[in-house]
Amino acid sequence: HIAPDGKFILFSSNRPGSLKNSTAVKPSFDIYFSEKTAGGWTKPELLFGAVNTRDDEFYPSITKNGKLLHITRSRYNDSSRTTIVKVYYSNDAWEDVSTAEISRNIDYDIYMYTKSLFRSGSYISGFKKGVSTSRDIFYSDDPGNKITELTGSPGPVNTASDEISVTELS
After folding, report:
1. How big is the CA angle at 113 (ends 77 and 81), to the nearest 5 degrees?
2. pLDDT by residue (tens digit) across 141-168?
3. Predicted TM-score of the model (pTM)
């Protein structure tokens, strides 16, 4: 995820240095950041604060004002049980972690969530319960009461394939 101001990136990795579940062979996926400087990008570091756990954290997405981060959290090695987590930036750290309301939606199993930078709602990917066997991309009003399928030209965005993430360009 590239920050709206372009000054840093957030990404998920299970590189050495990531937290590790005590029963795991490999580290968990954690959120890292790198800042853009005149000389290029800084060495990636674990995002400080209460973001990373011994479970897997994926798909970081930060709001336009830089104060709210959404991530997907899965139990280590079990992506079938994901939760969208929101974390606020305060006192120079990411703290105040809670489950996002969208995770409580009864019609969809949400896999990825990102606030729109240009509209009032959010984009999500996930499974429509009882209908989908692959993930699709949807748009949601806030706080996620209405979820609609994306359409484009000449038709729907979703296919029989697995659509797992979305990024806005403009």
Report:
1. 30
2. 876 668 888 877 677 788 888 888 888 8
3. 0.86
